[in-house]
Amino acid sequence: MATLLVSYDLNKPGQGYEDLIARLKSFGAWWHYLDSTWLIASPQPASEVRDALLPLIDDNDELLVINVTGDEWASWMPGNGANTWLEEHI
């Protein structure tokens, strides 16, 4: 199981995030404490996750998916449980 960082910019004013968020949550375990940044645990490679999300964004939007499994990390998010998720999945 890989941990993938997914970050996006939806550039069209008023664009809805509901379908994109639902799809991100459907991959399984997920972390979302920053506006447009998610971490998801997925057996799929980054390219397949990207391809699954592309139909949910517009041509002028931006999407980044990176495998961060095992990478060093550091954060400052006291009291919200974010670090626990990161410790368990990265």
- Supply the number of helical segments: 3
Secondary structural class: alpha+beta
| Integer-rounded radius of gyration | 13 Å
Helical proportion, percent range:
25-40%
Q: Into which percentage range does the β-strand content fall?
A: 25-35%
Would you mind describing this structure in some detail?
With 90 residues, the chain is α+β, with helices and mostly antiparallel strands. Helices cover 28% and strands 28% of the residues. It has 3 helices and 4 strands; from the N terminus they run βαββαβα. It has helices at 18-26, 46-53, 82-89; strands spanning 2-9, 30-34, 37-42, 62-67. Strands 2-3-1-4 form a 4-stranded antiparallel sheet, with helices on both faces. A hairpin with a 2-residue loop joins β2 (30-34) and β3 (37-42). The longest helix is centred in the first third of the chain and has 9 residues, at 18-26. It is globular. The termini are close together. The mean pLDDT is 87.
SSE arrangement:
Elements: E1 2-9, H1 18-26, E2 30-34, E3 37-42, H2 46-53, E4 62-67, H3 82-89
What is this entry, summarized?
The chain has 90 residues and is an alpha+beta fold. Helix content is 28%, strand content 28%. The model has no long low-confidence stretch (mean pLDDT 87).
What tags apply to this protein structure?
90 residues; four-stranded antiparallel β-sheet; globular
